[in-house]
Amino acid sequence: MMEWTDRHCRFFHRLLTRRALLYTEMLTTGAVLRGDRARLLAFDPAEQPVALQLGGCEPAALAQAARIGEDFGYREINLNVGCPSDRVQEGRFGACLMAEPGLVAEGVAAMKAAVKIPVTVKCRIGIDEQDPEQSLFGFTDAVKAAGADALIVHARKAWLKGLSPRENRDVPPLDYPLVHRLKASHPGLAIVLNGGIASLEQAQAELGALDGVMMGRAAYQEPWRLLAVDPLLFGEPAPFASAREAALALIPYIERELAKGVRLHSITRHMLGLFRAVPGARAFRRHLSTEAMKPGAGAAVMADALGQVLDSQADLAHIAA
User: Fold this and answer.
1) For residue 234, is it within any domain?
2) pTM exceeds 0.85 for this model
């Protein structure tokens, strides 16, 4: 979710669900240790609960970055061992670390020793020619022994040779039954399923066998789905009765951020998929796509875009459809 789940995206998503755990973009340990921490790590307290996702392989650096994340107030530190991009591979982190479970375990142990908040790992079921059953179960044994609090499994292989990062999100087949078997063999370890979850109803079905479900692209590209998270999965009312009401509630945040020099598009780019099957949804997307990009664009652009959308309590109806 690099360049997707930034702080503006997370603030917006928190207006749609109070209960879902939100994750940052993956940040490398080098960026955390040597970069502009205030820019990279700062977040609004309203985003909580939010987890910091790290990319790295050197245990000491991971421990230091995790400690910094804890000091900033993050509720969880997550180590990414699933990203297949070439740049990530060159840095010796992400999915290529599926081939080095011992090194990952050292990193987990170092982070666990450095922080008091949960340390989790996000991985694939294997890479390239690895046997998924052997690679995933062996990897799990290693990180569990190191003290990992949970394992988030993207239920696809990552083909580091032959597929692009985009293709790695769709081409390798999903293997949910393998993740179910992993949970059955590790009942005391929290196992979260990721990959291909397209609806909350699908997520709810998986929660019968697993401890959690992570939604990435579906939640980002169709954020209207998030309004049903609290009612469907937690038995609590949605923060707002409609997607339009949630978007209107974002306007004070927009005004505050614009006053700090943030461009409107940096915030509204995360909202283009907010409406589906609602009269005016296309006009909403078109208005934001064109007007929010213009220099000096203000909160009025957002209000005008919402003016294209029917103000209806039926906004929630399409979520369950």
Assistant:
1) no
2) yes
